[in-house]
Each structure stands twice: as C-alpha cells, then as structure tokens.
Amino acid sequence: xxxxxxxxxxxxxxxxxxxxxxxxxxxxxxxxxxxxxxxxxxxxxxxxxxxxxxxxxxxxxxxxxxxxxxxxxxxxxxxxxxxxxxxxxxxxxxxxxxxxxxxxxxxxxxxxxxxxxxxxxxxxxxxxxxxxxxxxxxxxxxxxxxxxxxxxxxxxxxxxxxxxxxxxxxxxxxxxxxxxxxxxxxxxxxxxxxxxxxxxxxxxxxxxxxxxxxxxxxxxxxxxxxxxxxxxxxxxxxxxxxxxxxxxxxxxxxxxxxxxxxxxxxxxxxxxxxxxxxxxxxxxxxxxxxxxxxxxxxxxxxxxxxxxxxxxxxxxxxxxxxxxxxxxxxxxxxxxxxxxxxxxxxxxxxxxxxxxxxxxxxxxxxxxxxxxxxxxxxxxxxxxxxxxxxxxxxxxxxxxxxxxxxxxxxxxxxxxxxxxxxxxxxxxxxxxxxxxxxxxxxxxxxxxxxxxxxxxxxxxxxxxxxxxxxxxxxxxxxxxx
Length: 481
Fold this sequence. Notes:
Protein name: Transmembrane protein
Distance between the termini: 56 Å
Radius of gyration: 53 Å
Coiled coil: 323-350
Keywords: Coiled coil, Membrane, Transmembrane, Transmembrane helix
Number of helices: 14
Organism: Candidatus Methylocalor cossyra
Structural class: mainly alpha
Number of strands: 0
Shape: elongated
Transmembrane segments: 160-184, 196-218, 230-253, 282-300
Number of domains: 2
C-alpha cells in the first residue's frame, strides 16, 4: 500500500464510539418508568393523607429528593456523553488536514522528473553500447561495399522467403525420393518398400550436394577477387559433374539391383567406372533424368537463399540486428517513460480525489460537532422537563389527598447542580475549514499546470532519446576514418 493510501485510510477511519462508565447513549429519559420505580402515586397519596410534608417544611421530601437524584444522575450521564463525543470529534477535526497531502502532490512534477532521470540514466550506458555496435556494423558494411564496388542494396529473402526456400529443398528431396522409389521398385525384389529405403538416402544425398554447391560455391562467380571468381567458375562445371555423377550412380545402382547381384553397391561402382553411360533399362535412364532435374533445381534454390555476392548479406543482417536491438531497447525505454508518466498523472488525480474526500470528512465532523451540542442541549432540556413533570405529578397528587395547605416550597423548582458546559463552538473549526478549502482550491488551480509540467517533462525526456537515424549518424561520424 502506498504512503498516500495509508495516510488517506487513516484520515477516513471512523472514530471509535465513546465507551465510558456512566455515559450511556443519548436517549430520552423515561418519566413513566421513573414514576413506577419510585411508586410515585402511592407515595404522594400516603404522604398527603398523613399531611406530609408539613406545611411549614422547607426541605424536600424523600421521594422528591429521589426524583432530583435521578434527574441529576441523568444530567451527569448526558454531560459525560457530550464530553466524550466532543473529545472524539475535536480529535477527528484536528487530524483532517490537507497540508501534507497537497504539499506532497504539489511536488508531482519534480518527483516525475527525478524518477524519469533515474530511469533514463540507468539505461543510457546500454543504449550507448547498442548504438556503438550498430554504428560499427554500419561502418563495416559501408567499408565492405566500398572495397567490393557494390552500389546496390543487398538482395536476400526475409524469414518467410528463407522458410519457402528450405521448404522447396525438402519438397525436392521428398519428390525425388518418391519418384526414385517408384522406379527402384521395378527392379527391387522387396518392391516399393525396399525402393523407398534406397531412394530416400540417394535423394537426400543428391539434394544435399546440390545445396552445398549452390549455397557456398557458385556465389563466388560474382566475387570481385579474381581467384575467388575463378574458383566460382570452376564450381559450376564441378556442380554439374557432381549432379551427373550422383545421377549415374543412382541409375547404375538400380541396374545392379535389377540383376539381383549379391554386392549391388560394388557392382554399381564397377559398372559406373567401366561404362558410365551404359545403362541397361529405361527406368534407369528415367532415374538419371529425375536426379539431374532435382539437383539443378536444388542448386538454383540454394543460390537464391542469400545475396549473390558472398558475405554481403551476412554483414547487412548483422547491421539490421544491431539496429533492431537498439530500436527495441529505445522503444522499451520510451514505453517505460510513458508508463511512469501515466502513473504520475493518475497519482495526481488520486491525490485530488483524496483531498476532496478529506475536506468533505472535515465538514461532516464540524457539522456533527454542532449537532452533538444541540442534541446535548435538547437532552438536558428534556431532563429539566422530566423533573418538572415528576415533581408536578407528585405535588398535585399530594395536594389532592391532604386536608391542609401544601408546603410553600411546592411552588418552586428545587435548584439543580451547575454543570460545566462543554465548548461546542465551531468558529475555530470553520476557520480551519476555510483555510483547508482555500488550500484545496489552490491545488485545483495548479492541477493543470502540474499535469502540463509532467507532460512536458515526459516529452523532453522522450525526445531526448535519439531515434535510430540521428543516433547512428552521430556514432558513425565518430567511428568513420
């Protein structure tokens, strides 16, 4: 939980109810219940018939004194309740203060700037290193282009093209294997199953050899170096010769299998050495044609899997990887800055909502304090009315049953003990509320400015992270001779 949330939760927690001995909830006093408990009517009749209290008596009778004690007890209990409530409300009002919250929220722009600076500083070294690697790869590529007289961009397939090219090679091996198997089956005693076993191995070997020539040997024809160009020129007839040799070996092997010789591989090699073109069956010539076609197609497919100029595509791929690494790191850092900015703006809005809630809670506490004072006044007035009611009922009944005059003190209410009245005034509280409201109003007035500062700081930090082209130009300028 954040500091803001813990502080806000502490502010809004409801005050605990006052639990004090002799301080009950503020409920109206029940005059009828007191009258029943004191047996007021019977006592009034009994004393009246006895002529008590005497006409010249100046002190309260026992039942009147009991009524007064009951009333005094209720007054004291109500007062204790009011004092306890006042203490809780004053404490509640005192802690409802926006100053710390508003002051801290008012530093939101500086806090964002500090955190953004720390975030960028922690990644600057990695970005610089990635930029240097990208620049080095760019310089290396440009140097390669200059040394080899290359003015065109590299030409090579992307991931989808490479996948397609490899798929073609696999398909060629499968197709050649299937065709070979069908032709082998014509002369193999084990039929189609045996043909598949032999055909698969020959097809894979034929395509693999063609791939090696097409991928690594033939591109040397395009090299600027005369020696490598010469090697590339030699590779072409060698590749065709290798394709022809593999095809003839496959065809002679089929002839040997068809004759059901004990050592078919040795017989095929001997036949190939003695008379390369001396194939004995039409199906063997068909095998030769299939092998040559598959080898030529595989060679061409392998040749197109990369740039025709040896080494050019590898350097370009390295440059692209370095650029992508820098770009991904840069975008990740920008995304983190964006997240930090959004979190700062959200925290600012949350602080405003919390400040408004605290001010509202302060207003409620002040109103509750005012209402509590009025309730206490009304409760004490009800107690006084209860005293008048109980004494009046007793004295009226006493007069009714007595034969002589009533005591003179019956005409007056007995004095009650003076109570120290709690201070429920809210003038100072209202002054505090006005100050807090002004503080909130100032915060609201600054909200847009704070949001604008955070946004401006974010834009400045984001734009300060050099994009690929600008960063590379700077790094390439440093690395270029």
